Amino acid sequence: MNSDPGLVSSLFMGIAVVLLFSAGIILSVIRNYHLFYRMEQNNEKIAFFKKIKTGAGFSFVFLLVIGVLSSVIAFSKLKMSVENNVLAFVAISVLLTAFPVFVADVLEKLYKNNGLQFFLHFLRYAAMIGYIFIPFQKLHNAVISNKKDITDIDSQDNITPVEALGALISPEDKENELKPEAFDMIKGVLSMHEKLAKEVMVPRTDAFMIDIQNDNDRNIDAILQMQYSRIPVYNEVKDDIVGIVHIKNILKTAREEGFDHITIRKVMQPALFIPETMAIDEVMFEMKKTQNQLAILFDEYGGVVGLVTLEDLLEEIVGEIDDESDQPEQDYHKISDSEFIVQGKLSLDDFNDEFMTNFEMNDVDTIAGFMIAKLGYIPEDDSHESVYVDGIKLITEKVDDSRIMEIKVELTPALAIAHVQREKKV
Predict the structure, then answer these.
(1) Among 24, 34, 53, 354, which one is most buried in terms of CB atoms within 10 A?
(2) What does DSSP say about strands 268-269 and 210-211: parallel, antiparallel, or unpaired?
């Protein structure tokens, strides 16, 4: 008994349409990297997606191939003229090419307008179809096993949120309405968990603190001369922080009782202590929970290493925040095309970025620390020690109380030329 060619063709075309609809779903998922990170916030959703991804074994390429084969088989069953076959083949080929992309665009808009739950509804139907093709998927994976899947969430080379963001909303994209400043802010937020508190802290040696053992008038005079609203208080040594003084409390007490009756102990409040290795996003959450805007950092031995303020954390997102009391400070100034005076506290990363070097050393954050490590000793005050690193000469220009305040940098001719060329571009 001969089969009805119309029925056969309809059957295979139906299969092709269903498969291509599924391909469109997968294409839409691939184009929506941010969906993965939304789903990671819910264990059930991410587990379900992994089940679709790995258990059902979807292959976008395989779905397209099956779709094309379905149309070929359908045409072979049809008893049509050669002219009609050619015309129909061209029409269906266009459909097979454009349909998945069309579905992907529609689903992407549906997801953006209706949210994650609506999008997952389509993935469940796609999963049902995918189970049928598990054997074919395994064969497909075996053939191209050296290729990495773009949607492999568990891969060691999986993209980070910042990389996914860069792919989706790159500021160079002409169709993107985000300004570069907004893009940098979003990147700053997403990378906060990767940066530690010690990377943004004010070192203990640079932090303004007062000794509770000093005379009250002396402490209050010192506080009023500074532009800080919160001041750490220590007991004889800076490793023994006993509290924080808020200038608002000083003024309030002075208004009520007069300056002569103010004592630091009376206006002092408890300090927030955090480890220097805490991620800055966790520091911000801790500040919010405890209603503090300043935290004292300690190392693994319990020693105080510095402090960090809420402003320091916000600057990691929005950039430098300068108020009316901040004086502009240059990290370096130029003597000639090949000679510069650099601040010792300049971070090693910023030094590398500015002078196109590749200085690296474990447990060293600043160019001064890098130079001390290279010298092997702490230079004496007002001494001019020098060291060569990759042909670059570093000279201690100013040393005060065993701290390298300024360093003279003499670049190689090649680096000097490169630095001049970059300055011209800027």
Answers:
(1) 24
(2) unpaired
Residue type for position 35: L
The residue among 190, 208, 235 that closes a domain is 190
Q: How high is the pLDDT of residue 56?
A: 42
- Which of the two residues, 179 and 341, has the higher pLDDT score? 341
Per-residue pLDDT, 154: 47
Q: Chain centroid to CA 382: how far?
A: 41
- Residues across the chain: 426
Distance from C-alpha of 376 to C-alpha of 60, rounded to nearest angstrom: 59
CA distances 286 to 50, 241, 273, Å, are 33, 19, 10
- Give me the CATH number covering residue 403: 3.30.465.10
User: What's the mean pLDDT when you consider all of the chain?
Assistant: 74
> Locate tokens 């950039």: which residue?
319
What CA–CA distance (Å, rounded) separates 394 from 340? Answer: 10
> CB–CB of 246/230 below 8 Å?
yes
Best CA proximity match to 58, nearest among 143, 153, 154, 126: 126
- Of 89, 67, 58, whose CA–CA distance to 76 is shortest? 89
- Of 124-128, 217-221, 321-325, 400-404, the least confident: 124-128
**Distance between CA 41 and CA 7 in Å, rounded?**
47
Q: CB 338: neighbour CB atoms within 10 A? A: 18
Is the pLDDT assigned to residue 252 strictly greater than 70? yes
User: Which strands, in side-by-side order, build the sheet including 304-309?
Assistant: 202-203, 304-309, 294-298, 272-275
Rg of the chain, C-alpha, whole Å: 32
In a domain, 273, yes or no: yes
CA atoms of 100 and 106, how far apart (whole Å): 10
Residue 351 lies in a domain: yes
What is the rounded CA–CA span in Å between residue 69 and residue 97?
Answer: 13
Q: CA–CA separation, 287 vs 274, rounded Å?
A: 10
pLDDT reported for residue 180: 73
Count of the separate structural domains present in the chain:
4
pTM of the shown model: 0.55
The answer on 376 and 348 residing in a single domain is yes
Q: Is the pLDDT of residue 276 over 90?
A: yes
